[in-house]
């Protein structure tokens, strides 16, 4: 009686939104992992939102948009210096029924989109926060990496104890923004906390997904 999930079960068009500021190599790595997703290419789009970078970041976005014109697009948010303002700009142009958020230094696993959408759909929830796994330059973390990894981005704890998911790995139905508004763009940090709690306090369901993985350098 086991139900085998096929790709057609989870084919909801999804928009991936990546805010970025002065991080060309991080963005390069993130985009490479996103164009290589084992997910139908006509079922998702990747939106890079440059937050007024002053280096080669925009060149990386343009290069990928030229190479994958059906898949990658970029927009610019240069009025407000905030990753949440950048995410809001991405939400504004997104065509997907689901929005998936990650950051320009994260490496989503190959089945990230598949797992995130599957979790959202099978559990019939409003939001899914996926696992964030730290990576280290060497096999053992140095002291700074250790404190970074120990103290931050414990996504399971955020979901279960605080009622939000970090935007380094977050899936939600676009309807949520239409219903409750977008991120508070004046916030420099904590906008994901405010937004997630705004929704969970009003009864929207958020779950943690172990299989929906991104790797994040400490």
Q: What would your notes on this structure say?
A:
The structure is a single chain. The chain is of the alpha/beta class and 218 residues long. 36% of the residues lie in helices and 23% in strands. The chain has eight helices and eight strands. The protein has helices spanning 24-35, 57-67, 83-93, 112-122, 143-151, 155-162, 175-180, 191-201; strands at residues 14-20, 44-50, 72-76, 98-101, 107-108, 127-135, 170-173, 206-217. Strands 3-2-1-4-7-6-8-5 form an eight-stranded mixed sheet, with helices on both faces. It is globular, with a radius of gyration of 16 Å. The N and C termini lie far apart (43 Å).
Number of strands: 8
Q: Radius of gyration over alpha carbons?
A: 16 Å
What percentage of amino acids are in beta strands? 15-25%
Helix content class: 25-40%
Global geometry: globular
State the helix count: 8
Low-confidence stretches: 1-11
Largest sheet: 8 strands, mixed
Distance between the termini: 43 Å
Order of helix and strand elements from N to C terminus: EHEHEHEEHEHHEHHE
**SS class:** alpha/beta
Mean pLDDT: 90
Set down the secondary structure blueprint.
Layout (H helix, E strand, L loop, with lengths): L13 E7 L3 H12 L8 E7 L6 H11 L4 E5 L6 H11 L4 E4 L5 E2 L3 H11 L4 E9 L7 H9 L3 H8 L7 E4 L1 H6 L10 H11 L4 E12 L1
Parallel strand pairs: 1-2, 1-4, 2-3, 6-8
Antiparallel strand pairs: 4-7, 5-8, 6-7
Helix pairs in contact: 1-2
């Amino acid at each position: 009686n086991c139900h085998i999930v096929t790709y057609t079960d989870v084919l909801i068009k999804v928009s991936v939104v990546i805010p970025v500021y002065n991080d060309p190599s991080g963005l390069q790595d993130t985009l490479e992992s996103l164009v290589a997703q084992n997910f139908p290419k006509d079922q998702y789009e990747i939106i890079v939102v440059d937050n007024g970078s002053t280096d080669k970041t925009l060149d990386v976005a343009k290069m990928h948009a030229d190479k994958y014109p059906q898949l990658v697009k970029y927009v610019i948010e240069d009025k407000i210096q905030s990753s949440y303002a950048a995410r809001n700009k991405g939400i504004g142009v997104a065509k997907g029924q689901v929005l998936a958020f990650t950051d320009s230094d994260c490496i989503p696993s190959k089945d990230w989109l598949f797992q995130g959408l599957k979790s959202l759909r099978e559990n019939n929830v409003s939001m899914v926060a996926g696992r964030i796994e730290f990576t280290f330059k060497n096999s053992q973390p140095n002291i700074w990496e250790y404190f970074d990894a120990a103290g931050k981005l414990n996504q399971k704890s955020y979901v279960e104890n605080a009622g939000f998911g970090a935007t380094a790995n977050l899936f939600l139905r676009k309807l949520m923004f239409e219903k409750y508004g977008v991120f508070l763009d004046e916030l420099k940090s904590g906008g994901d906390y405010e937004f997630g709690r705004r929704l969970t306090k009003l009864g929207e369901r958020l779950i943690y997904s172990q299989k929906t993985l991104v790797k994040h350098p400490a």
